[in-house]
Amino acid sequence: MSNQHTEHPTGTTETTETTHRTAPEQVEAFYTNVKRLGHWTRARLIDVRARRSCVHLDLRSPQLPEGDLELRLHCERSMLKLLLPEDAVLDERELALVGRCTVKDRERHVPHHGRVIRLTGTLQRGEIRVARGGIATLSALFSREFLDDCRTAHRRGTTPVLPDPAAVHPPEPSASRSR
């Protein structure tokens, strides 16, 4: 029995701009693994609560609203892995680090000029790992969710979304197609 929990998108729903401002996306992980890959949210504010867990968040989707994204963290003894676009700016100035904490970003001191992702809240004895570009793609590829995405895409006759959510994908063929 696996203790891994994965959220899959339930379809496309139209939301208003006020929903983006008022309703934060909730991600909770307590003593488990949570992965949110592909097109999983359209919120600008993401509230992450984790205790002794691993949380993987894919923030490469073009369905995310324009402007800054804010991740409110309340993590204790947890690992948060962020899959970011190549040019994303990670702003961690408002993040309180308590105890032994690390933020591992290979391109931390390289100037970026894309979307700003602000980390706020508290990280207690935890770790944040940042993967950008090709490394983020590889991280999405080597997951069980990618296999599920491939199977679903094969059944529908489309291409998988997880390797590159920002790529233009052809529309799904009509359901009236005969076999």
Task: Describe what you observe in this structure.
This protein is α/β, with parallel strands linked by helices and 179 residues long. Helices cover 16% and strands 38% of the residues. It is built from three helices and eleven strands. It has helices spanning 17-22, 133-141, 144-156; strands spanning 4-6, 25-30, 33-36, 45-51, 54-58, 69-76, 79-84, 89-98, 102-105, 116-124, 127-132. The chain has a six-stranded parallel sheet with strand order 1-3-5-7-11-9. Strands 2-4-6-10-8 form a five-stranded parallel sheet. The longest helix is centred in the last third of the chain and has 13 residues, at 144-156. The chain starts with a strand and ends in a 23-residue tail after the last helix. Mean pLDDT is 84; it is low at 1-20.
Summarize the structure.
By secondary structure, the protein is of the alpha/beta class. 16% of the residues lie in helices and 38% in strands.
The string of secondary-structure elements, in order, is EHEEEEEEEEEEHH
- Percent range for β-strand residues: 35-45%
Mean pLDDT: 84
How many beta-strand segments? Answer: 11
Q: Can you count the helices?
A: 3
Low-confidence runs (pLDDT<50, min 5 residues)?
A: 1-20
How far do the termini sit from each other?
36 Å
* Biggest beta sheet summary: 6 strands, parallel
Percent of residues in helices comes to: 10-25%
Structural class: alpha/beta
The largest beta-sheet arranges its strands as 1-3-5-7-11-9
Shape: globular
Radius of gyration: 17 Å
